[in-house]
Fold:
Amino acid sequence: MIFKTIVLFVSLLTLSGFCFGTPPPDGDIRYLDTPTESNNNNLAISPSIPNQTTPDQLEFPHLNLPATPDWDGLLHDSKLFMLYQVGVVGVLYLMPQSVSQWGDDQKRGNIFRKWDDNVHNLRKDKDNWEVNYIGHPYFGSVYYVRARQRGFDRQGALLYGTVMSTIYEYGIEALFEPASIQDLIFTPVGGAVVGEYFMIARENILRGINQRGYATTGDNIKLFFTDPLGVINKRVDKAFGYKEASIEIVPLLSRTHDDNHSLPTLVGLQAHLSW
Structure:
């Protein structure tokens, strides 16, 4: 629940500041003499794209979209995103119940056995409508925009959001609660709708920056919240000198609750980041 509350807060903060309009004709755009490279995911001003060849590049000339899907870049984004999830869960696991909302009964015992029960207990959750129908679409838009910024078309970005939201529901979140029918549907589908509006918003923001010649604090905040994963990943790579990230399935040993002499082999996740 705490993840969903955070996502809802962020989505409301973001949506309150946007006006989604139709981009003006190319003749109305004024570019800077020496534009700064955006590298697809930072807060700098994006240059125009020479020799535009794809419909997305024509529609979003300021976003500096690659002409072909960047599979390696999206895989890198995905690995880091899953590492963030593992890290957040680890920190919350150590927090008191007043912060994490996980009682001792939820933390006690074999969490992988609980995971197995939860993934086989798909159900309709009872979260507030704001969480299911505003928070989760925003969460899905994070996946969608990241794929679009990596050069994937609308269908590819929707598929990516579906895969990532399913991994989350049946992965990290299933350690503590059953998978949710609403979340599996509204996260990718709603995310695709919100994410496409975010793409339009990002194009308009960057066009405005080009016209003024500088970015305001409001511009930077909006660009961050419309592609937080891209901005955070770039900061992490720059700060730690990224070399490798991985999520591996590994055997783990865990003592059962009812037999102190037994050490069964379980299957778990190992997260690894090197720099």
Q: What stands out?
A: Residues 1-46, 249-257 have pLDDT under 50 and may be disordered. The longest strand covers residues 244-253. The longest helix spans residues 181-212. Residues 2-241 form one domain.
